Amino acid sequence: MNTKLVNYVVKSLIEKNISITAAESLTGGLFQSEITSVPGSSDIFTGGFVTYADVVKTQLLDVPAPLIQQYGVVSYEVAVAMAQGAQKKLRTDLAVSFTGAAGPAGLEGETAGTAWIGINFQGQTDAYDLHHPELARNDFREACCEFAFQKISDRIL
Fold this sequence. Notes:
With 157 residues, this protein is α/β, with parallel strands linked by helices.
């Protein structure tokens, strides 16, 4: 993990008073762990979600089950819904979501090393796809988190 990037993003969020949350599936809390590794992060991070199972995405984040059934859990639509749900639940300025197939097996026809990362900032949401089938499971999970920190840096800070 690029600790310089993580420190820069979290410290910048603190300086700008931009609150953040996350809804994580394949990353299993790794992104939130990286946020809280930075001293002072409690100023902008009050909590988040690890929603590994589809039913938990529906129960905690209000991701509609028909949306998951129609598009699959590894999709732009679900990443957007997860980010929006997390932002709505915790009323933060910024919410990031992660959904995908870390591997070694694929998921719902998607190859291992495929993810969608949603970013909701002040009500505007987008999602980005990431494909790295060459990476091992945990390397891909870290790559997803690093990608999200870079997107936050590029888009918001």
